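Hi, here's the filled form for the chain we discussed.

Project: internal
Contact: R.S.
Residues: 118
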Amino acid sequence: MAGGFSLHDPVRYVFTSEYDKKYPHFYLEEEITGDILEQKYLSMLKMMCDHKGFVDTLSSYSGISYQKYVDNYKKAQKEILAYGVRVSVKKNVLLDMIEKENISYAYIHDIKLSQYQK
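And the returned structure, exactly as it came back:
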């Protein structure tokens, strides 16, 4: 989660080219960098800021007001601080990341010793 947003895209919609320009990296591709994650987060906040009626409808459930999204968007445009990322990766990808020293700490919550393990 990132400020109330999941960075995982379980469902994708086809955006018009106008929306692709307005909300860059709203959907993540295969290649992910820190800059792309930052832009995705900004795009998700901007999407909420651009749809006040939708946010107002959800606010009674989520507890997050429209103004909170606007304030977070303004703050995120200046600075985004990240302290961790939750990922699901295959063993070889994780080992490659560790070898390249892109990871300073890892907490493994669930692991399967074999593909046949349930």
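Let me know if anything looks off before we file it.
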